[in-house]
Specification:
The chain has 92 residues and is of the alpha+beta class. Helix content is 33%, strand content 21%.
Length: 92
């Protein structure tokens, strides 16, 4: 039985890069989160740097670019779902 990957969330303000790329292996990208305790590919620890999608597209491999696009789409879907969820009101 496989274990589920845990993540640290990394908040980003508007205009700040939201993709985190592992600088040890340059083959993993995550949107507004980094895996813990280490990179799932190379097991590097604390090796992430923030980039925009445009920056990754400038220098990344096709595989890294595809992962960055997928991560950004997943991050957008999560943000949209969170925004669509109405706040819970307490009834007293």
């Amino acid at each position: 039985m496989g274990s589920k990957q845990a993540f640290w969330t990394v908040p980003a303000k508007d205009g700040e890069p939201d993709l985190w790329v592992c600088m040890s292996c340059l083959s993993e990208a995550f949107c507004r989160k980094v895996p813990m305790p280490a990179c799932p590919t190379c097991h590097g620890v604390s090796t992430y740097e923030a980039f925009t999608l445009a920056a990754v597209q400038d220098w990344g491999t096709d595989e890294l670019i595809a992962k960055a696009v997928a991560a950004q789409q997943e991050g957008a879907a999560v943000s949209a779902a969170a925004a669509a969820t109405p706040p819970v009101e307490s009834v007293q």
